[in-house]
Amino acid sequence: MRPKKTRWVKCSPGERCFKPLCKPLSKLECVCLTLDEFEAVRLACLEGLKQVDAAKKLKISRPTFSRILTSAQRKIADGLVNIKAIRIEGGCCKIKKGRI
Questions:
Q1: Rounded Cα distance, 95 and 92, in Å
Q2: Assigned domain for 80 exists
Q3: Which residues are CB-neighbours of 33 under 8 A, at least 6 positions away?
Q4: CB atoms within 10 A of CB 40
Q5: Is residue 27 part of a domain?
Q6: Count of domains for the chain
Q7: Element (H, E) at 18
Q8: Is residue 29 part of a domain?
Q9: Is 100 within the bounds of a domain?
Q10: Mean pLDDT for back-to-back runs of 10 residues, the chain (100 residues)
């Protein structure tokens, strides 16, 4: 398998875990979202960028961006539908200060 290319994210999320109020964190299953998945969701869904433009910001190809975004959306849906905590951590990312 090829080594993963470093992805450049704009900022690290302040809160690293989101959980439903119905149960304590210790009794919840967890879904882990990587920093690059978090950034893909931010760029595509919040910023409204087209995949090709968002991929340029992360310095990856458009098909790779698409795979990352699809993975992130699946994990978020799993967390919301199945009442799981969503933790944001890890990934092969470097945090870029200022403009990307």
A1: 10
A2: yes
A3: 72, 75, 76, 86, 87, 88, 89
A4: 31
A5: no
A6: 1
A7: strand 17-18
A8: no
A9: no
A10: 61 72 86 90 95 92 95 96 88 55
Alpha-carbon span 72 to 50, nearest angstrom: 16
Q: Beta-carbon neighbour count of residue 90 at 10 Å? A: 12
pTM: 0.78
Q: Domain of residue 78: give its range.
A: 1-9+34-91
Query: Which residues make beta-bridge pairs with 30?
Result: 85
Phi and psi, residue 8, nearest 5°: -100, 120
**Token pair 């458009």 is at which residue?**
62
Handedness of CA 19, 31, 82, 11 (dihedral sign): positive
Q: Tell which residue, 35, 27, 31, has the closest CA to residue 8.
A: 35
DSSP 31-96: EEEPHHHHHHHIIIIIS---HHHHHHHHTS-HHHHHHHHHHHHHHHHHHHHTT-EEEE--SSEEEP
